[in-house]
Amino acid sequence: MRYTIQRLLQAVPVFFATTFLIYAMVFALPGDPIVALAGDKPLSPELLHTLRERYHLNDPLLVQYGRYMLNAVQGDLGQTFTGQPVSELLQGRWAVTAQLAVTAWIFELVVGIGLGVIAGLRRGGIADTAVLAGTTFVIAVPVFVVGYTAQILLGLNLALFPTAGVDEGWPVSYLLPGMVLGSFGLAYVARLTRTSLIENVRADYVRTARAKGLRRRRVIGRHALRNSLIPVVTFLGVDFGNLMAGAIVTEGIFNLPGIGQQVFQSIQLQEGPVVVGIVTMLVMIFIVVNLLVDLLYGVLDPRIRRA
Amino acid sequence: MSRLVSLFTLSGNTPREEHVTVLTRIRGFAVLLATALAVSACGGSEPPAAGGGQPGAKEFSVALTEPDHLTPGNTSSSYSITVLQALFDLPVVIDAKGQPQMRAAESVTSEDQKVWTIKIKPGQKFHNGEPVTAESFADAWNAAAYGPNAWTNNYYFENIEGYDKLNPEAPEGSEEAPKPTVDKLSGLKVVDPNTLQVTLTGPFSQFPITLAYTGFAPMPKAAFADLAAYDIKPIGNGPFALDGTWVRNRQIKVKKFEGYAGPRPAKSGSINFKIYESRDTAYVDLRAGKVDLIQTIPPASAPEAKKLLGDRFVATPSGTMDYLGFPVFDKRFASADLRRAISMAIDRQAIVDAVFNGAFKPMSSLVAPLVPGYREGACGEACVYDVAKAKALFDKAGGFSGTMNLYFSNADPSYEQWMTAVANQLKDNLGIADIQFRKVPAADYLSTLREHKQDGPYRNNWVMDYPSPQNYLQPMWGEGNRMGWESKEFNDLIAQANSAAGMEASIPLYQQAEDVALREMPMAPLWNWQDQGGYSDKITGVQIDAYSPNLDLITVK
């Protein structure tokens, strides 16, 4: 318990440091966002000034950041250049990204560990070779190629999944993008599980378990696998954060109105409040997930359980 | 991408500078690869299936990129305009031939091209039942012209009398402009419910045609009670009314307005504008039968789309042009002969074929072909690719020494592709040895040009607002232009044309001005864009033209 509180307290300086850093980085981007928004159209100095005032772009960095944090604490995250409140915008978008990330994560977890176990138990067999080859391929091919290929083959030509959009809701609309997004992590999970399992299967305690005459299923499931999962859990934990943050390409291909799309647009438009809002949330997710992973270690391996 | 960053803008940048990004570049490649895989795996793909979108009777769907605003005075994004054209009837409309026709207005007339009388057709209603009167127009225009509102289309009203009072300039030494003391244009006078009198600051023969721009739409009284709410649920006077509110990044639904009394009642029950982040995805959805109409098929997919869609592939000429501008203020580019020589050394057709799949049209005129008054070959030999003549003229002008920097923005990878082709041609044909690229961040590009920081030829793009030569010539070659080019002869001709007795009479004068600009060649025309769209077999009556997708004409089978 004390450990948990300690960890959460550590998050406070991390929170301020990241938000300030992000704010400063957006602030330092070249060019004037308002002028850029107007495109080739003439923009009178008065109009420019009014808009810069409206978005507080004339103030120095520290003042802008201070105002932002003050408002943020009161639940006001500012508004986008199109006048939409950031909190409202993020609400809708987080839901989409969270559903996508969860789908991808479950896919990684179930299929990844499953494949890893199959490969690890019969080292050198056909299944093992197939898993190794398949995962190498997935790791080597960029996600946008996997994405478009899956969309055209499975979505368009075979019509097994919707091609794009979120009209059909969870899980149907999220299956294909989730699989694409999770494919990369899945390859790692499968390989980690396999390697870890191969090592543990030869360990003394597994031999002991076998010698005791335990059934194979119990030896593998209860003893070997449980120990093998520690590195896998670490990876899955960190990867959940990555899935939330790394969906830019996938969301684009499958037209999912999530966080990835938004952060990409906002960086280009230099919408400081939106970028900071999103990145702060991502940082918090990383912190919480890492904490959960550390706590989970204790469950898997009592030796590292803390007081 | 217009736009990933397509996208969204208080922003006129979506139509102006296409918002295409690194992501789209990657996608272009991915689509090729994916399509190749798909085709080899399945031995050819099927044509789009029938049906699509939500069931719902007589509804069809249109792929859209997220608009920025839906208040007509506060958006110049082409995506917003697509929706607004369904929701609003403007005073005037441009027909497929580029001619102005009356729509919400009965007539737009003037004796002296300065004081205009707009007669509004009686009996029209807004979607909330309010009558459409002269006041509806005056209210909307006053709001757009009112400086503190900071609406995008503010500058469209600058030639109406009283604009200055609504947009007072900041006093010397201060950035802060004083608050205007009035909030109405003195040049707008509501004579009676159906008559609006507009007094301009000077004669302007093209005024009627500008009234076809969505910035001139009327707004009901109800709008002004809550402008923020109006922006996501606009109330218009057109054949379609908003159904629900704009669901950001998802969809905008509109349904047939039963109380519509104008000239173009909707032929379908409703339209679902489905918002896409990527044009590639929208195209896949068209093939999957999930969206019925897309207005921009990605160039990389165009050849395939042509095959798959057959008659349902539509190529529409557009008013958008690319130019190569010269920094005339830099003395190395002061010679008109040098500038003409560079223009003659560029093989426009070869670049169009290589970079744009041959879809764009090489230009020998400063205005697009669909603009009344366009003359094919107005440029003469200065826009004809001729290496020998170019080289001779180049040498006569004294050649070019030092580094030639070519300027373009990083908004789209195609800019660099065609600039590279231009550089190679200048190297080979004129012997300019040292050519460097200056790829400027998109957010910085236009201010670079505005501040005359470019010391070499640069990419200049123009999206037409209304089909008049004036819309090209005056903003780009007129006073305060980016080239630093000054010609009294040109400016005088434009002023004469603006005060000519009418549209017809103004054209020869604009053409003379164009001749001056072509003779001096401060900016060389390159090519004219084309839009490529397509639709599903579920709808008929698709008549997209350069001015409107004409969604009211579409029938659902």
Which descriptors would you attach to this protein?
heterodimer, A: 307 residues, mainly alpha, MetI-like fold, B: 557 residues, alpha+beta, D-Maltodextrin-Binding Protein, domain 2, Dipeptide-binding Protein, domain 3, 2 domains, 5-stranded antiparallel beta sheet, 4-stranded mixed beta sheet, 17 helices, 31% helix, globular, disordered N terminus
Query: What is the string of helix and strand elements of chain A?
Result: HHHHHHHHHHHHH
**Largest sheet entry of chain B:** 5 strands, antiparallel
Query: Would you tell me the overall average pLDDT of chain A?
Result: 81
Total count of domains of chain B? 2
Poorly predicted segments of chain B: 1-56
The strand count of chain B comes to: 19
What is the subunit organization of this protein? Answer: heterodimer
For the record, what CATH class of the largest domain in chain A applies?
A: Mainly Alpha
Average pLDDT over all residues of chain B: 86
Please, what is the CATH homologous superfamily of the largest domain in chain A?
MetI-like
Distance between the termini of chain A: 8 Å
Low-confidence stretches of chain A: none
Given the helix and strand composition of chain A, which structural class is it? mainly alpha
Shape of chain B: globular
Q: Could you describe the largest sheet of chain A, including whether it forms a barrel?
A: none
Q: Please state roughly what percent of the residues of chain B sit in beta strands, choosing from under 5%, 5-15%, 15-25%, 25-35%, 35-45% or over 45%.
A: 15-25%
CATH class of the largest domain in chain B: Alpha Beta
> What share of the residues of chain B lie within helices?
25-40%
Number of helices of chain B: 17
Number of strands of chain A: 0
Protein name (chain A): Peptide/nickel transport system permease protein/oligopeptide transport system permease protein
InterPro entries (chain A): BPD_transp_1_N (IPR045621), MetI-like (IPR000515), MetI-like_sf (IPR035906)
Domain ABC transmembrane type-1 (chain A): 94-297
Membrane topology (chain A): Multi-pass membrane protein
